[in-house]
Design a protein that fits this description.
The chain has one domain. It contains 9 helices and no strands. The radius of gyration is 16 Å and the shape is globular.
């Protein structure tokens, strides 16, 4: 049974929000918003530091959401309040989710992004959000693929 939200939960949510506004995190989130992998190898290349800046930004965004998901999974932060505060975690997962199994296998990281995935899929509401975000991500992935490259 989930705990009732507390003022401390609200403070954690506000701190998490402030972290997303930090200058380098903003750059990382902007880069991630434009990153549209079309195959597992696209993600693996970033993880293997083909471009060190992209690697850092990718790890910053995904690491942030793994950390936040861990707070909820461990009972430190109220799940309902967390769900109310942002849909960005589902968007991050949706971009990578179609390739996640293969990424885990090829990188030999069997628990890679597991906290995000567990939190996003453990409730009916979470699964519904993920389904919506997967559809949205596929539309955006297709649109990104159709754009002329400069």
């Amino acid at each position: 049974m989930a705990k009732n939200p507390t003022p401390e939960d609200a403070q954690i949510i506000m701190r998490l929000y402030d972290l997303r506004r930090e200058a380098e995190m903003r750059k990382a989130r902007q880069w991630f918003a434009r990153f549209w992998p079309h195959a597992p190898q696209d993600v693996i290349q970033v993880l293997e530091a083909i471009n060190p800046q992209e690697n850092a930004w990718f790890r910053q965004v995904t690491g942030y959401w793994e950390m936040a998901a861990s707070f909820v999974m461990r009972g430190v932060l109220n799940e309902d309040l967390f769900f109310d505060s942002s849909a960005e975690m589902w968007f991050v997962l949706a971009k990578i989710h179609p390739f996640l199994k293969e990424i885990r296998e090829k990188t030999q990281l069997p628990t890679y992004l597991s906290r995000i995935e567990q939190l996003a899929t453990r409730t009916e509401e979470g699964r519904g959000r993920l389904e919506l975000m997967l559809k949205r991500a596929e539309r955006q992935r297709a649109a990104a693929a159709a754009e002329p490259r400069s």
